[in-house]
Write a structure and sequence with these properties.
flat, mainly alpha
């Protein structure tokens, strides 16, 4: 139980820290947020929990492929904001497009035989 609490606290502190840093410097916040901290933590936690390097490698490979559809969010969201579209509408639309892109990517991978 303590191990789970420690994982949650470390992960939460990183996310809140990046948010707070971004209030003062969006450049530094962007750099920190672009580092795959969540992915690295997930890989570390998975390895510590399972001691299975192969499973962590598979997670890493899956993350690589799933980054591609997630990039749509980071392209679409600022475009919509710059066009003065409401924040929540921009956020929601960008998330929906990203989720649809995930499903399309998984469908394509399934058709060509790539297992994620």
């Amino acid at each position: 139980m303590w191990y789970f609490i420690i994982k949650v606290l470390i992960s939460s502190v990183l996310i809140v820290s990046i948010s707070e840093i971004s209030k003062h410097s969006t450049t530094l916040g962007s750099i920190l947020a672009s580092v795959p901290l969540v992915s690295v933590l997930a890989i570390i936690w998975l390895y510590l929990d399972t001691k299975d390097a192969k499973q962590t490698a598979e997670l890493s490979q899956g993350i690589f492929w799933m980054v591609i559809p997630s990039l749509l969010f980071f392209v679409l969201f600022p475009i919509m904001i710059h066009k003065s579209i409401n924040f929540w509408v921009s956020l929601g639309t960008s998330l929906v497009v990203m989720i649809i892109a995930y499903f399309i990517m998984l469908f394509i991978f399934n058709k060509i035989g790539i297992k994620i």
